[in-house]
Amino acid sequence: MKFTKVYEIIKKNGRNVRKGEKPMSHISEYEVENILIDRLESIGYSFIKLNTYEDVLANFRAQLAEFNAKKLEEKGHAASFSDTEFNRIMIHMDNHSVYESAKILRDKYILQLDNGENVYLDFFSNDTDRNIYQVTHQVTMDKAHKEDVVYKNRYDVTVLINGLPMIQIELKRPGVEINEAINQINRYRKFSFKGLFRYLQLFVVSNSVQTKYFCNENEMVDGRYNPILKSLVFFWTDDKNTRINDLNTFTSEFFCKPTITEMIDKYMIIKTTEPVLMVMRPYQIYAVKAAKKRVLEVKQNGYVFACTGSGKTLTSYKTTRNLLMDIPSIDKAIFLIDRKDLDTQTTMAFQAYANNDLIDVDETDNVNDLKKKLKSADRQVIVTTIQKLQILITKRLKEGTPEYTKMKNLRIAFVVDECHRAVTPGTKRTIERFFGRSLWYGFTGTPRFAENPYPQKGDLPRTTEELYGERLHKYTIQNAIHDGAVLGFQVEHNGPKQMTDETDVSAYENETHMLKVLDHILNKCYYKLGFQNGRGQTYEALLTTSSIQMAQRYYDLLNRVKKGKTSLQI
Predict the structure, then answer these.
(1) CA 257, CA 134: separation in Å to the nearest integer?
(2) What is the pLDDT of residue 499?
């Protein structure tokens, strides 16, 4: 039986704490709360008792002044705010949506002091030594203290940074479904997370033995309540994708000051197109961190094995962004793709992510445009195709000219989408010989291994690892299905049975088998998908083949069947 520390009641920081041991199944929600606060205190959070919204405001006023004390003192001002100064701050901060509040949190505010001086106030820093980390519990929000609160609510545990509520933790006792805590947070978002509680960035829910996290969002969209979707509630894991369910371990890792600061600073996205807040999943974070670590520690290439549908675009954007922003020795970061239609699509996605990162994401309209951007002194993320880059270095640059020399000396980080096919080994070698100081990071859901190598000859690389270097992180389809990151699928075996030799693969390539496949698609799926019950007459699917030639044969055969030139009766 699992035991945890809780029974003898003592007074600590104005709250009742039980100490001792009791079976896990007998622990109350209040006891879970106290254990969590103890753990947070042990890793550097200061407990503060805040009962009402007035207390939250007073604490914010004090902590914001302390957080900006140096700036205030440089202006000949005490590390505190007068009533009129704090009123100006609250006019700037109050009555905004969650989305707008997230942008304000990450920006500076010019406060006019009573002495006529202006001071640039910060609300949050990526410096853990500068931020002020606090924890409170049982804050009551009601109409008496905040007039736009609809119903009175009392919250479990709130983590404050620089006085702002930034993470809300809702707890259940062991044995109670944590979905109840998610439902509770949705009610709070709808009825009582007002004022400074709109600056909440993350939520954590736990029943001690199962713990998840998720991002805040606007509670109202187009005049309708917008609940948090349970599909956007994530488990935390280690870098091997092993879940960390236990609340104590989760707290030690997720809430350690550097990690929670990075979560808010680097691994949340204020997307401009919806607009929404997003938070990255653990495997995305570990992939981004691994690429940065690879540059800083060994200055070598690497690749990420991330299955299709797991959010590679966001992960590759953050990788590209962090390499450029966090490593001053890198002049440009280039995200390489292999088709023009994806060029614009990817650029738009990157720009939606980059709006609040204060970096330029530029698409290249043509080869001359790419050349212009590379010559520019701006440090920027460039999205371009492999074809434009090839033409530039083989046909548009004249050896011995100043621009040729300037280009060759650029320190470029290349991030390659679908790296198993986007850049062939021969093409990559050509580019590397020109950009001799380049670093390469690939993303793929289907790496080339020894059993499915590149069809290369001579000394060119044959596998993804040979081409890009060490695998930095792996997130397979099995991991993704387990996490609910992608839809699962059902496998049915309908092919030739008892194949004893590799040559039997030819059984899949003869016309008899191909006609059986088409019969399954055109006839059997009619009943399998319930079309006979009036569910429609069309569906979409993918037919995968062993080669382009086989796909062409299927296309020709399907046309013959449709025109009545070949029968499916075999």
Answers:
(1) 11
(2) 57
